Amino acid sequence: MKHTSRNAWIQLAILVALGGAVILTLILPQLSDRQAADPPLELSVVVRESDSSLWSNARLGMEQAAGELLAELRFLVLTTSNDSQEQMDLLRRECERGADALVVVPAAPEELSQNLRDLTGQCPVICLESQVEGTALTVAPDNRALGQALARALLEDWTGGAVLLLNTAPESEGVLARLDAAKEVLEQAGVPVQCRQARAEGMMAVLDGLVRESETGWIMAFEPAATQGAARAKEEQDLKQPLYGVSVTTDVAAWLERGTVTAAAAWSDYAAGYLAVESAVRTARKERVEMEPLPFSVVRGEDIYDPDNQKLLFPVAP
């Protein structure tokens, strides 16, 4: 009897040991994974405008990428659009507070490049819109090709008269590349052009005067803020000059449909935001990253319901 009882206890001990081993095989990998998992990276995003709504679709893409890649985002705007000193101060502050990487839409690329030595030793910098020497990567369309395509769209409609080119971001390398490329195409085709400098947020107050003073019958804008400002001014002041612009937000899509904007060169802001954060995370983790120019297209009012163009109007994962 005692022998039977002892065998039962031995069998029970063996079963308990086996059960414990099975439990450990299930739990230990999870504990190991938790210990091995990298802590979330902290990324700071600093744009050059004071109006954050211009980057709403890009921000959706950034947040999608951050959620998938275990990163935390801080999204910052300037109190005054294109204030390069304020932007530089914000970038320094974010580095000092321990950001693992920065995503920036440069207000003044040359100035940023000169100050990058203070930043790159602490965290990598990913740029949107404009290429900056010394940054890790740039996420943007081919700005010269974009300006050329927009000018060719105007040439398809041109019936004579000068074209007003709105220079609303004189320090932005990317925006200026679009303007210069459009100017070259138009001048090579024999179209007279007039370049005028203005603030995008002040377009309502100055556009009518610029059109009258330069005696132009066509208008071109080369950044989203300027396109939106010019479209609002056209409708408020009943200006008849065809407007060619950049970016397709839902507002610009409505203006395209109504004919306020004749054509707009556009790319996916959602994809740009996603790729910028993805590149920032991979760069911060010392991974190799390469980037091709973002694809773009020129959209007219009659094209906005084309399936391919719907991807530009509404957020779609890249």
Would you count the extended β strands for me?
Answer: 11
- The Rg value, from CA coordinates, equals 27 Å
Classify the fold: give the CATH topology of the largest domain.
Rossmann fold
Report the helical percentage.
Answer: 40-55%
Report on the structure:
This protein is of the alpha/beta class and 318 residues long. The chain has 2 domains: 41-141 and 269-287, Response regulator (Rossmann fold), CATH 3.40.50.2300; 143-266, Response regulator (Rossmann fold, 3-Layer(aba) Sandwich). The chain has 12 helices and 11 strands. α2 (56-69) packs parallel to α11 (269-284) and α6 runs parallel beside α7. The protein starts with a helix and ends in a 5-residue tail after the last helix.
Map the helices and strands:
Blueprint lengths: L1 H35 L4 E6 L9 H14 L1 E6 L7 H13 L4 E4 L4 H7 L1 H4 L4 E4 L8 E3 L3 H15 L4 E6 L5 H16 L4 E5 L5 H12 L1 E5 L3 H14 L5 E4 L3 H9 L4 E4 L2 H16 L12 E4 L6 H7 L5
Parallel strand pairs: 1-2, 1-3, 3-4, 4-5, 6-7, 6-8, 8-9, 9-10
Antiparallel strand pairs: 10-11
Task: Provide the descriptors you would attach to this structure in a database record.
2 domains; Rossmann fold; 318 residues; six-stranded mixed sheet; 11 strands; alpha/beta
Short summary:
The protein has twelve helices and eleven strands. It folds into two domains: 41-141 and 269-287, Rossmann fold (3-Layer(aba) Sandwich); 143-266, Response regulator (Rossmann fold).
